[in-house]
Description:
The protein has 314 residues and is mainly beta. 13% of the residues lie in helices and 39% in strands. Helix 3 (246-253) crosses helix 4 (255-261).
Amino acid sequence: MKFGRFIYLAVLFCTINTISNAQGFMSSNSWRKYRHEIYLGGGAANFLGDLGGRNQIGKDYSYADLEMSLTKPSMTLGYRYRVSKNFGWRTDFNYMRLWGKDALTEETFRNNRNLSFRSPIYELSTLAELEIPISKIGNRYHIKKTMKRRFKSSNQLVYGFVGVGAFYFNPQAEFGGKWYNLQSLSTEGQGLPGGPKKYKRIAVSIPFGIGYRLNIGRQWTIGLEYNFRKTFTDYIDDVHGTYYDPTLLLQYKGPVAVALADPSKGDIPTATMPNADGTGAQRGDKQFDSYMAVELKLGYMIKSKKRKKTRAKF
C-alpha cells in the first residue's frame, strides 16, 4: 500500500470515528446505552375556545381563531425511555397560562359579550413516541475494512407522538382590579337551582404532535416540538352554555358573580335576555376547548451502567 493512500485512509477513519463519537447513537445498538433521557422545554402556549379569536364567527379547532396577542409562556419537564431504536415512551409535566378576551375581536356578538378569562394549566401526561431518522453518518464512502461495524444511527430525526394526560385548570376574571375564581361563582348557574351541575377543575386531555431533534455530542439533544391538546371539558374559559337568571345569581352568589357572568357592552340590547320560550340566551357553544404549545427542548441522555459479567461457579 502506498504511503499516500495509507495517510488518506487513516485520516478518513479518524474523521468518521470523531463524527460518530460527537453525534452519539452512532452504532446500530448504541441507543441501548442511552435509554434514559431527561429534558427541559420552554416556549409559547395559546388557547382555542369560546372567547376572543378572529374578527368573524369562530370555527371550532381553527387556527385562524387564535388570538396571537394572548400567547403566553409554557414550560416542560420530562423523562424519556427508549423502548427500541425508533420507539420511546415519555412522561411530561407541563405548566402554562391560557388567556382569552372577547374585547380583542371585532366579531359583533363576541365583542358585545365582553367576557374574559385567564387560567393556569398544570398537566401530567404519558406519551408514545415514534422516531424517524432524517440523516445518517457512517461508511458513506463504502470503503471496506475501515470499520468492523457500519454506522447506522442518525444525528437528526423527526418524531410524532400521542398520549393521554390529566390537567388542572382554574379560570379567573378581573373585576374592580381584583381577580376572582369563576368556578366558585357559578356564572352559568352551575350547582344552583335550575342550572347545570358544577364542573370539575381536573380534566382529561389527548396530547399529540410532531417534533425535530438533533444530537449534540454524545449525550445532549436539542429540538423543537409542537404539542396540541384535545380536551374533554368546555370550561377552561368558564364559558359553555346559556346565561343564568341574574336575580337568582345575585341571591345565591352576590353582585360580583352577576357582573362577571354578564359584562356585556349593551351594543346588542337583547343578546343576554331570555329567549322567547323562556330559556336562557346563548353564552357559549358546547364544543370542547383545546390548547397548544410550541417549545424548544434541551435534553440530557443518561448512560446506562455496564453490567458486570458473572461466571458460574461449579
